[in-house]
Design the sequence.
């Protein structure tokens, strides 16, 4: 698990909830899996590079990584710069730098959360509640998309 922290604070509650859910899933279905963590520091790119070098030197057996925020490009760009192959990295959000890493193969897949659809559903629910006085559900589950190097162009062209 790669985290980008700012002055010792993880980015958001959403990021923390994703990690909690991931850990629960791994405990339940893959209890023997060892999870390593690396906290990278906001605004300290040179230090991050040293920390990543040290991590991969001491853990050459690690072949999979995840970020629970939109900064997967930090590790993806590092992997490209170091020409490290065979590492499966996943992260969130279709930032341009994340997509570039996906296309170049340093990110294995991105989770896209359809922010436009989320916003539309939020406004629609708010209007139904405030204007139409409808009772609304407290939770509204949304689909997510798993994007790979092979399907990213299709996703943009739909």
Sequence:
């Amino acid at each position: 698990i790669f985290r980008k922290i700012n002055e010792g604070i993880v980015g958001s509650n959403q990021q923390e909830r994703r990690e909690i859910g991931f850990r629960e899933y791994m405990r339940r279905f893959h209890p023997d899996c060892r999870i390593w963590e690396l906290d990278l520091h906001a605004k300290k790119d040179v230090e991050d590079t040293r920390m990543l070098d040290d991590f991969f030197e001491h853990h050459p057996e690690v072949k999979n990584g995840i970020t629970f925020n939109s900064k997967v490009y930090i590790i993806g760009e590092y992997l490209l710069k170091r020409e490290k192959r065979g590492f499966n990295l996943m992260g969130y959000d279709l930032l341009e730098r994340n997509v570039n890493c996906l296309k170049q193969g340093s990110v294995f897949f991105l989770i896209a959360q359809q922010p436009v659809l989320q916003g539309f559903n939020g406004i629609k629910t708010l209007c139904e509640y405030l204007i139409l006085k409808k009772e609304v559900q407290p939770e509204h589950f949304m689909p997510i998309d798993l994007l790979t190097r092979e399907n990213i162009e299709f996703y943009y062209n739909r």
